[in-house]
Amino acid sequence: MSRTRELARIQQAVDALPGLPPADPTQRYGVHRLTATWLAGLAPHTRRAYFRDLAHFLTWCQRDGLDPRTARPADLAGYRATLEHPEHGRPLAPASVHRRLSALSSWYRHLIANGDGEVAANPLAGVRRPRVDRDASTTAGLTADQVRALLAQADAVAAERAAAFTRSPTPHRRARHVAALRDRALLRLLADLGLRVGEALALDTDALTHNQGRRTVRYLGKGGKQRERALSSQASQALDAYLAARAGVGGGTPPGPLFATTGTGGRVGRLDEPATFRLVRRLAHAAGLPAADRLSPHSLRHAFATNARELGIALEDVQDAMGHADARTTRRYDRGRYALHRDPALRLGDLYGRF
Description:
Layout (H helix, E strand, L loop, with lengths): L2 H13 L15 H10 L3 H21 L8 H12 L9 H21 L29 H24 L3 H23 L3 H5 L6 E4 L2 E7 L5 E5 L2 H15 L12 E3 L5 E3 L2 H14 L10 H14 L4 H8 L4 H7 L10 H9 L3
Antiparallel strand pairs: 1-2, 2-3, 4-5
Helix pairs in contact: 1-2, 2-5, 3-5, 6-7, 6-10, 7-9, 7-11, 11-12, 12-13
């Protein structure tokens, strides 16, 4: 999608948000246009999350009769209270509250820095945010054996559907076979490279390339940074098998989304995150994994960090691969860091020798 079309799509979504004044296309620095440019400057995954956060806040403002442009710290403190102690439903976890307030603070800062005085101050500046233990994570993890079982289950589904298609090569069975190969390739990419699910799903087929004699994938990481990673031979083979089956007779790499869906009429779309969540849990149940109902695509990213460290890969190499600016973020993913067999005392005792 071109930058112009993408911005127009974002602008359309912003204009449909509640709680804002009517859109005025003649206002270059009005809240509608600035909100669209703020969202457009974010990485795709962050953009979706921040849009949801903003939409929730603006809905609350509309219901409360509050103009978000003139909100004060007391108003935002009240909003935080509704997140932590809602009248209906479950309260948000501290990390979720913290992220939602951070998103709103980013929005207000953008309006202040670029507007014509419509927003005078950031009301989040005077609101305390919940303390978040950055050394903990609630995402369910996977051992190396469990990752292998999950990938083996994806292999089994692909083999089963290939056999069904061979026996009766109908269009329906071909589509199911291609989808199984797609799912297997996606899981392999998430497991072997530890990509965020949004990074993987945003890939187009031209993201696959070569560099320094290796097969690589180029993608847009968090913060809008262009990144390039080496593909494992297993991920490369899974991707090739999927793309070959998808291309069918005639071959060639089909253009468009790397992980594609095919709707009625043959229209190609992009696989989305909810479908990927369902995929991981469906395969986890079939593989008999004990935490199947709690797993997510992010569990594979956790497993990447934990199992890489178990292999003895240096923390800084895992940090670089995951695209973390701070090593403490990487350590939060490393569930094995509390394992007693990794305590430096054991190695130092051997180094210093006997009495």
